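Subgroup meeting minutes
Present: P.N., E.W., G.H.
Scribe: E.W.

1. P.N. recapped why we're keeping a running log of single-chain structure predictions: easier to compare across weeks, and new members can see raw inputs and outputs side by side.
2. G.H. added today's entry (143 aa).
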Amino acid sequence: MVLVFPLFMYFYQFSGNGLSKDTEEWARFGDYIGGIYSGIIALVGTFITYSLEKTRSKSNILHKRAEALYSTILHMKKRNFTNNDCTTLQEQIGVAKLDLPQLLVDKLTSLADNYLRYLYQHEKVDDVLEDSILEELKSIYHG
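Output recorded in log:
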């Protein structure tokens, strides 16, 4: 509708005698169309570029957060971690929870709790959960 409206307005205003054979009138018509549509095309192009950049930026943030979580869990997998490492993991989960799928956030939270129980109550870490989370995070940041 937006693309047809300028054509309709031009022909409504200036085509009293049908199509012209005068090249000057066609040149003016070309100037009119070029002026109208170049602005519309520039606006659409700007919007598309903005949308793509915003999507790329979100994707980069997600990859960085997934990689940070992956590195922290990989370190903790060695079972030589402290309460500070647990706090770091919990903070990373808190930051990433808006970007990650809720199921993964729930698993990460469960693993963080499991690490604390390992640290203070000497419970065994759920290796299966830990490995599945590492695989999910790896698939996110490696694409």
